Amino acid sequence: MRARGAAQGRVGRTHRLDEAAQRDFKYTLGPYADPVLEVAPGDRIVVETLDAFGGRIRLESDRPSEILEMPFGNPQNGPIRVEGAKKGDVLAIYIERIVPRGDQPRGTTCLINELGGLVGTDVTAMLNDPLPEKVRKVVVDENWVYWSDRLRLPYEPFIGTIGLSPQIDSISSLVPASHGGNMDLPETRPGNVIYLPVRAEGAYLFLGDVHATQGDGELSGNAIEHPSETTIVVDLIRDWQINWPRIESEDRIMSVGSARPMEDAARIAYRDLVEWMADEFGHDRLEAYMLLSQCGRVRLGNMVDPNYTLSAGIEKQHLFGNV
Amino acid sequence: MRARGAAQGRVGRTHRLDEAAQRDFKYTLGPYADPVLEVAPGDRIVVETLDAFGGRIRLESDRPSEILEMPFGNPQNGPIRVEGAKKGDVLAIYIERIVPRGDQPRGTTCLINELGGLVGTDVTAMLNDPLPEKVRKVVVDENWVYWSDRLRLPYEPFIGTIGLSPQIDSISSLVPASHGGNMDLPETRPGNVIYLPVRAEGAYLFLGDVHATQGDGELSGNAIEHPSETTIVVDLIRDWQINWPRIESEDRIMSVGSARPMEDAARIAYRDLVEWMADEFGHDRLEAYMLLSQCGRVRLGNMVDPNYTLSAGIEKQHLFGNV
Amino acid sequence: MRARGAAQGRVGRTHRLDEAAQRDFKYTLGPYADPVLEVAPGDRIVVETLDAFGGRIRLESDRPSEILEMPFGNPQNGPIRVEGAKKGDVLAIYIERIVPRGDQPRGTTCLINELGGLVGTDVTAMLNDPLPEKVRKVVVDENWVYWSDRLRLPYEPFIGTIGLSPQIDSISSLVPASHGGNMDLPETRPGNVIYLPVRAEGAYLFLGDVHATQGDGELSGNAIEHPSETTIVVDLIRDWQINWPRIESEDRIMSVGSARPMEDAARIAYRDLVEWMADEFGHDRLEAYMLLSQCGRVRLGNMVDPNYTLSAGIEKQHLFGNV
Amino acid sequence: MRARGAAQGRVGRTHRLDEAAQRDFKYTLGPYADPVLEVAPGDRIVVETLDAFGGRIRLESDRPSEILEMPFGNPQNGPIRVEGAKKGDVLAIYIERIVPRGDQPRGTTCLINELGGLVGTDVTAMLNDPLPEKVRKVVVDENWVYWSDRLRLPYEPFIGTIGLSPQIDSISSLVPASHGGNMDLPETRPGNVIYLPVRAEGAYLFLGDVHATQGDGELSGNAIEHPSETTIVVDLIRDWQINWPRIESEDRIMSVGSARPMEDAARIAYRDLVEWMADEFGHDRLEAYMLLSQCGRVRLGNMVDPNYTLSAGIEKQHLFGNV
């Protein structure tokens, strides 16, 4: 049972947003670019995403610092205009399927100067010398990420960056915030629904940055980045006031916070969850607060982006009762 | 002596950007709006700024939550296009003069829900009840801010928000970051020069949010906000790679950092200052680092905006030697 | 297989540290109190712990602010002196069994002024009014925590506070740090081994604060606090230089960090894990760093104590390879 | 006029706590060591302090990592027992005079691994290589710190570490917290009074770590450390409930906060100042909050210790009115 039931009923038209149709990938999420696609609530969209490096890192001998040119990182598909969406609505995006695409080795991860959880960065500014740059190319198929001769990791793909246009700002695709964006949250995976607040007329959905697998925190700054074919179904929910992204899986609801320091991301997510429990499921706010102290679950998305992202969730059996 | 000597030589044309010429005040700093004025390097601009509330808070009985409508806070003049400015240049802005304007009591400060250094906010999310809203209107003239029957504070005006367009993002006028923006730094005051990195063709300068006086940190979220007539002279410096705003006074150079947590703002500012000392004044980096441990000076701008801002500076006598 | 094999071989003597033997519970972890028990490496100890309130909150109508008197919070059993332990050793503590004890309803959780993840505190100092105080008493047995008529949560007990004496400091039992302490980490549960650095002669082990269950972050400041009978087996590992607590389960190794802001706790834990992987399991440091970016797992202990605590771990199959 | 008038009336006996009388310098502040001196309220004490390295760094070719042995850093004089002091009192310490002592070059500063505001540390844990170690020895007299051939800095000495014993903890002399400790705050200088909350019977005063001069933040981890002869006068104030250190100068009152992240230090200091203004000077709390937004002043002590320290103050003319 879905709490909201959106984006999972009868599916409308199926659109294909392939690389050719996208043409110009986007590097900010905002209301200023023209839509590349217009869809109706209920429609399915099959999206060809690029990897976070725009496919430009091809060899383990490549040097990211020579190839990548900021602010053109993390290319996004979109904006996708959703008919009838207006400020105050919520866009529900059901993630139906993610498969890898492109030539092998199609997976890429790397160490980039001033990016990563255990190095000085442009804001956690240090005088220490940077780590050496480093590129790893790995084979990825629909079952496994082949990390090394001795180790393979399950293919557990998710959308690293997904968000809607702010009302008037245009936010770098590298940034996660209340509009969604570069959250790097493994829960934005097939089978789940993400709810995003609509702030601009037409919603203007952007997505990209699909990860083949990722550890909590995306520690060294990159996951297994890879080009994908990602299928979503979008739907509109009217009259639902939400301020931050929310995610729903088969057995759990989750609120998402993105901020620095990391405790503020946790505060955002948990307060939003308390309010969600109170407003829609009839919990008393203080009782919900105390209950989450017993059974809330936190998942760290990233500890490397301009904001850190995590989700705070509760199992539906705890939300609705199990006795 | 100015380290850079910019924006203080022979002044070119004088332009007037009054309310009528500005017409639509701006709420994001980006490359997407058309310039309201075009100037040449060396030109003077007399700007009529609104207060941070767009003049909409008129009475002490007003309720900010009913009057202010986000994201339309902190209206900015601009964009002002600077002829010939291109990515990689630096725009030097000499602040020549600030005087108050408008009907008395023309100064406004207030308590706004979820804004302030000692209250829960949208990101430092709390369950506690908010403080009551509160508005203070105060008389401001060119000498004093008349706080109460018993207390007046010197009129020490400065520009709360000043910044250039990012290359592709468009950033809310409420946010301070590497482009400048809502820094609330008392050092952006008459007599000083602020250096900002040009990232978009034409620089696209925005400014507003002039404060009649302000405490360190802008503790309750607002200073004495007031409409002003602000006079600046702009100049271009070619081939100077800076990443964050820098400020120069008669006797001091200062680097500016904006980030959360606050220590990252301090790290940004101090590292930039180390690099400035090394690159332009011949100091050894580690010697500069150790010297600042003995005579660096920090000024806290705000502890209430989406990023906190502070400056780290050194006296020129310590920079150049005094023996 | 245990990476270290400690504390799980032939067990020595069994000691009982019941309430009477403990007599004076301790509120700081340090070298200044006399041991209440002396054991040899390999010995088993059955410990009667009090709940975090020293059993003083008995009724839902109790007011914590009238009952609790700081700094006497979170009473600890100990110090337990371990024969032969000296600075530079590691104490391995295998957690064998935890069962609840005491009269029903033996579980307690409550809202305390200036404690909790979504309220202002003594350090995240706010002017907002505090939330109302609130006490919940719940029945706890070896299977369930009976939260309400509609909801029961599995009994998943763990040791909330466990640590060794620092060399010369004496640290409040409310604080988690590199000596262990009030980590509130669900991974210190039956079946797991915790490794702690010995800093004082005799190790001086303290423990208490057993939780019947807890959500990630211990959001409202308290878990289901309850008196327990906790059985541990202690062992010594010589010549193992560790700086922070480490935990080992059947299928995972985990490093623990406690700090503010929360990202520093994550940095501590993840850096320690990188070093553990490099020093003991032959991984290249940078390769380990990149691998954890793909499969590291973070568990948030608390976001409410003087330091925040989390663990960062890796599955043994990923550590040793699975192909 | 002093708000509290303490520690500045008729002075009682003068005691001398020289190196010989101190004998064992202390590395934690707590109630467990025997007093080295007993004084009465009103007494003067002339204290011979060591530098923060215990005088062990003698040459610029010394390597701190080979010489310094943690946790034995920052040696303190004390504990000094104050007759009649009991929990709930406040100890007022008037700093009368500081002069340098010892052989030239008697000033020392250095770069130490994992210490400093622009390097990774044990808690802001990084994988980057450390900076090189570096020692600077400088001549210090009662007028100047002779930094280099071209630069001398004024001798502006202050007490880097001063604090009272906690009730039951014993806190490392490297740590600043609510008991005082390693605050590195230039306002603890001759002419000022520092107020500290008494928590243990006899107060147990510790001090040391005198700096010849220091920049805001003590950026590289050390100021100009030097041995000193420091003269203080102590007094008791009964029935004054304070939770954090407070400082009073001729023209200003200041509250002190020590915490991480830095914004929490600012919140602590500013909230305490609001409460001080309300409780003792008759200000309305919300009016005080708004007034500090116009004229509060922050001074950053350190951004390098286990907690960061800063003060928030207000001029007495603004406190009492100036019209």
Blueprint (SSEs and pairs):
4 copies of one chain form a homotetramer.
Chain A lengths: L13 E4 L1 H4 L5 E2 L7 E3 L4 E6 L14 H4 L8 E7 L7 E11 L6 E5 L22 E7 L3 E3 L5 E3 L3 E7 L6 E2 L3 E2 L2 E2 L11 E5 L7 E7 L16 E10 L8 E3 L3 E8 L2 H20 L3 H11 L1 E6 L5 E8 H5 L3
Parallel strand pairs in A: 1-4, 3-5
Antiparallel strand pairs in A: 2-12, 4-17, 5-16, 6-15, 6-17, 7-8, 8-9, 9-10, 11-14, 11-16, 13-14, 15-18, 18-19, 19-21, 20-21
Helix pairs in contact in A: 3-4
Organism (chains A, B, C, D): Antarcticimicrobium luteum
GO molecular function (chains A, B, C, D): hydrolase activity, acting on carbon-nitrogen (but not peptide) bonds, in linear amides
Pfam family, one (chains A, B, C, D): FmdA_AmdA
Question: In a few lines, what is going on in this structure?
Answer:
With 323 residues, the first copy, chain A, is mostly beta strands. The first copy, chain A, contains five helices and 21 strands.
Protein model, in words:
Chains A, B, C, D: This is Acetamidase. Chains A, B, C, D: One of its GO terms (molecular function) is hydrolase activity, acting on carbon-nitrogen (but not peptide) bonds, in linear amides. Four copies of one chain form a homotetramer. Chain A is mainly beta and 323 residues long. Chain A has two domains: 14-240, Jelly Rolls (Sandwich), CATH 2.60.120.580; 247-320, Endonuclease I-creI. In chain A, 14% of the residues lie in helices and 34% in strands. Chain A contains five helices and 21 strands. Chain A has helices at 19-22, 64-67, 262-281, 285-295, 316-320, and strands spanning 14-17, 28-29, 37-39, 44-49, 76-82, 90-100, 107-111, 134-140, 144-146, 152-154, 158-164, 171-172, 176-177, 180-181, 193-197, 205-211, 228-237, 246-248, 252-259, 297-302, 308-315. A nine-stranded mixed β-sheet of chain A has the order 1-4-17-6-15-18-19-21-20. The first copy, chain A, has a six-stranded mixed β-sheet with strand order 3-5-16-11-14-13, with no helix packed on it. In chain A, a hairpin with a 3-residue loop joins strand 8 (134-140) and strand 9. In chain A, helix 3 crosses helix 4. At the A-C interface, helix 3, helix 4 and strand 20 of A face helix 3, helix 4 and strand 20 of C.
